[in-house]
Design brief:
The chain is an alpha+beta fold and 316 residues long. The chain is 31% helix and 17% strand. The protein has an eight-stranded mixed sheet, with helices on both faces. Strands 2-3 form a two-stranded antiparallel ribbon. The protein is globular and about 45 Å long.
Length: 316
């Protein structure tokens, strides 16, 4: 597709098909309990186990069935290393490949990695509900550029009718709890970054009011902070702007897919399905609205911005 000098067709990816990870032979001390697993590398600097970066102590949720030690490397982490180091007991963690996409008409002064992500939860209340599924897609494509897993919330899932995820599906030893998953997530994102200081731009629909607040809350429960080089973009305001120009008041992913005549045969309201759909929408949306990566970054926000905003609302 031809575009002008200011227009950036972000995505032209095929659907991402999820395949189960091969079984890695990791010794276990007892059934359902993972042994200590270290990421490969010559220098291990620090434990990736959740810990606070600020003064004071928080209560860290303990994982009874999964006790995994993760460590940073003193070098760029390769995606293959991430996969090989995921404990075999976490069989719900899955990776797959996507077509590589060259970002055109953009000569960045600072490298940016763009991810589309989505979560499913046990409800809408951030203080009570928990994440039960997360999917991420690196839009630069390539090997292992799709990342998906269920999350063990250690609680009942009352809204299975919405996303089809049941309590029995997630409250299992092979499904990681959040305090074991976050270190794996951070290593995965680091493995996809072009440089250690690259900005990671995470894009989700309704990110500001739903996905990011839940993510921030889960990090907080594990006494961790969302990395400062993670930026977030909410496509909902973009959808409102676009659809209003076309005389519509419908801004959901389904409405956008109808507007752009996008048809995907994935299950709706599952994280990877919504990621695939938003990825397809984003390509057409950025072309129609003539948005560049620089434009998206200008509209993005940090987790700390959201935290400060929530604190100010409580004060007022």
């Amino acid at each position: 597709m031809m575009t002008s000098a200011v227009c950036l067709p972000l995505l032209r990816f095929p659907r991402c098909r999820i395949q189960t990870l091969p079984h890695f032979n990791v010794p276990r001390h007892s059934p359902g309990v993972c042994s200590t697993v270290k990421l490969l590398g010559s220098h291990c600097l620090e434990s990736l186990r959740p810990k606070s970066t600020v003064s004071g102590t928080r209560n860290i949720e303990k994982s009874e069935n999964s006790k995994v030690r993760h460590e940073f490397l003193d070098q760029k982490v390769q995606p293959s290393t991430i996969i090989s180091s995921v404990p075999s007991c976490f069989r719900s963690i899955q990776f797959d490949d996507a077509k590589c996409q060259i970002l055109e008409n953009w000569n960045p002064k600072q490298l940016v990695n763009v991810f589309v992500f989505d979560i499913e939860t046990t409800g809408f209340c951030i203080e009570i509900a928990r994440i039960v599924e997360i999917a991420i897609r690196d839009l630069s494509g390539g090997r292992n550029s799709c990342f998906h897993t269920l999350i063990n919330p250690d609680q009942h899932v009352p809204n299975s009718r919405i996303h089809g995820i049941t309590t029995n599906m997630v409250n299992r030893p092979e499904v990681p709890r959040m305090n074991d998953f976050i270190p794996i997530l951070m290593q995965y994102i680091r493995s996809r970054q072009q440089t250690p200081r690259s900005i990671s731009l995470f894009i989700a629909h309704n990110a500001r009011r739903f996905d990011v607040p839940f993510l921030v809350r889960e990090f907080s429960r594990c006494s961790m902070d969302v990395p400062s080089n993670w930026m977030f973009l909410d496509t909902l305001p973009l959808a409102r702007e676009l659809m209003k120009l076309n005389g519509s008041r419908q801004f959901s992913l389904q409405a956008l897919s109808g507007h752009f005549d996008i048809q995907l045969n994935d299950q709706p309201h599952r994280a990877m399905s919504d990621v695939n759909l938003l990825s397809a929408i984003l390509e057409k949306m950025t072309v129609e609205m003539k948005l560049t990566i620089a434009d998206l970054l200008e509209k993005s926000f940090q987790a700390q911005d959201l935290i400060d905003s929530m604190k100010n609302k409580k004060k007022s």
